[in-house]
Amino acid sequence: MSLLLANRPRRIAVPFGSTAASLVFAFAVFGMPRAAAAESSSSQASSASARLEIRTSDGLGTIHLDGREVGQGTFAGDVAAGSHEIRVSREGFDTFEKKVQVAADQLLVETIVLERSETDASPADAPPVPVSSRAADGIYGGLNLGALFMPRGSDNTIDLGCESIGATSCEPSKPMGALAAGYVGYALEPIGLELFFGMLGDVSRPKATFDGVRGSDINPLAAAPARTEEFIFARYGGFAALRSRVWWDLSRWRVSFAGGVGAGYNRMAMRRTAKTDDGGENVYNTEQQGYWSPLVTLDLSIQLKVGKTSSLSLGGLLIAENASGKARVPPAGHQFITGGTATVPRPVDTPSYDMASGPQIYLGPYVGVQLGP
Q: 153-183: per-residue pLDDT in tens?
């Protein structure tokens, strides 16, 4: 037997009387084309595949492909070309189902947003809002309500200049007040720039006593008549400041610090009630005096995140300004104590009073709400 194979037409010389030669001939004629056909079919089958990627918007949910679970929140793999059925389920959300058609060598990406079920349990049963799902940048704002205290006082005349008014003794009073404020800004995590604005008010009630006999060395003639003078110093105003804010997220909590500079305008008024031991009385009300002042503000708070864009705040605030010498009441004449056992009105000394002077430092707690990042 002889077998010649070449790149061009094959020539096979086989003695037909040989059984072995017949087998070789059958393989050459029928076997080789079939092997080539099988190889071609395998190549076509391997090329008839596609790439399918499935993901949910928040990375949660069970993904099924053609009835088989393939992942949690995300799936990526090769699939056969043709029709496939996608189903995504998650507790508390409507099940998502969709049929997709993919062609050979195609890449198909499906991003799925699950809708919360209307028949779901109460919001209290909903899972906590993941910190990562909160927007990090954007517009934010808040409102605060708080109390204000002035630990070092307002440095009014009764606090600092008891002798200057001729009083025997004085009882200072620390101002107390309230604050309503708001802020709005833009955040680029973890820093925000904001406008802080608000209104405040405070009241103090010092007292001066005159024994009617011995005044001070500075003003000895003011001792008579014996009396007690009760003062009310009232102040109200508004302010605005440009602040920067930084914060640190701790799961559902956030620590925030803000500080900045600005300006404020306040108006003050005074009421003095002088009463003698025998029942005489004089009430003296002043006109309001106003002053402008630069100010510095610092704010430290802790926030509880109660939603994707809302937080409850508890913090402490410092506001420092300067009243200089502009919150001053000029002296007044023709003030008399009437009534009592005296048959004629008795004059009462009414000098100039500083309702506030020098640095004014407010400290106080507040509660509030913030919307935004």
A: 999 999 988 888 888 899 999 999 999 999 9
Measured in Å, how far apart are the chain's first and last C-alpha atoms?
Answer: 89
Residue the block writes with tokens 């393989």: 27
Angle at 286 between CA 280 and CA 288, to 5 degrees: 160
How confident is the model over 332-353, as pLDDT tens digits? 988 999 988 888 999 998 999 9
* Domain 50-120, CATH: 2.60.40.1120
Per-residue tokens: 18: 């040989």
Q: What is the C-alpha to C-alpha distance for residues 360 and 152, in angstroms, rounded to an integer? A: 8
Could you read off the pLDDT of 245-287 as tens digits, one per residue? Answer: 999 988 889 999 999 999 999 999 999 999 998 999 999 999 9
CA distance 368 to 357: 31
Is the domain covering 137-371 a CATH 2.40.160.20 domain?
A: yes
Tokens linked to 75: 């799936």
CA distance 52 to 69: 14
Domain limits of the chain? 50-120, 137-371
CA distance 114 to 90: 8
